């Protein structure tokens, strides 16, 4: 165990509020008692208020005000951090080994009472991640370094219309996690504009050695969502889309990432959206198919016609 880790563990042992002798700490750390004395001297020299009491019932304690310091996490704070780490790992966070290291340090520096309480709380919350996809950790880490160091990258990128990857030079501005996938917002030198790229479509990458300046105030998430939900234009025709149905189905529909942004009215029996007509007659039609008979379209009438066309097309496909 590193010296700093051992000193921090002494600090956590003393944070319990109970006295601890040098012998007890040496046994816990599995070090020589003289090493404990050196660590305590070093902590005191750095400003940690350790109180030493001599005698048969003596030992070391921390000044009460220091025990309340934000440096020492409460059981509730430790639980929140560990649960957040579990959520991040299951979401596919690309530095999982660092999360594990941080979690082990939290456990190492906890009092027995804290450790028991935290374990019971953490065991009460399970996270089930999405099905594992292709490993992207190494690419994400390289992209992260490119973002931090503002270094241009060359990527071999697949699109849905191409069987072979195309080499592109990008300036990575930020990494986004959305809807179970990783994206990078970057300036594309091939297209001469900022674009978002799916990380799982990057077949390979390398640094170019050239640097760039990220635009001041640029927000990767704001750029990404703006492209998903473009601003309304005067030339676009928006129509009301009114649907009724079971409460659970309506709730699910209103929480959808796209429809939720267009929700105009919601009651216990129906929901009203204002949508661009072309999107309603294409994307939304296929979005509604899995709901079956749990939803009923009230208006527009053209939407019912589009649903019938989609169903006939699907039936014809499976009859062949």
Characterize the overall form.
elongated
Give the radius of gyration.
29 Å
Q: Summarize model confidence as the mean pLDDT.
A: 85
User: Which CATH C-level class of the largest domain is it?
Assistant: Mainly Beta
Low-pLDDT segments, ≥5 res: none
Helix coverage percent of residues? 40-55%
**Class from secondary-structure proportions:** alpha+beta
Strand order, largest beta sheet? 6-5-4-3-7
Write up this protein.
- The chain has helices spanning 3-14, 22-29, 33-45, 64-67, 75-90, 96-108, 112-123, 137-149, 220-228, 247-254, 277-281, 283-288, 301-319, and strands at 50-53, 59-62, 151-157, 166-178, 181-188, 193-198, 202-211, 238-245, 263-266, 270-276, 295-299.
- By secondary structure, the chain is an alpha+beta fold.
- It folds into four domains: 3-67, Arc Repressor Mutant, subunit A (Orthogonal Bundle), CATH 1.10.10.10; 77-123, no CATH class; 137-228, Roll (SH3 type barrels); 238-319, Alpha-Beta Plaits.
- Strands 6-5-4-3-7 form a five-stranded antiparallel beta sheet. Strands 9-10-8-11 form a four-stranded antiparallel beta sheet. A two-stranded antiparallel sheet has the order 1-2.
- Strand 4 (166-178) and strand 5 (181-188) form a beta hairpin.
- It is elongated.
- The termini are far apart.
- The model has no long low-confidence stretch (mean pLDDT 85).
- InterPro entries: CBASS_pafABC_assoc_protein, HTH_11, WH-like_DNA-bd_sf, WH_DNA-bd_sf, WYL_dom.
- This is YafY family transcriptional regulator.
- Residues 8-60 form the Helix-turn-helix type domain.
- Pfam families: HTH_11, WYL.
- Residues 139-204 form the WYL domain.
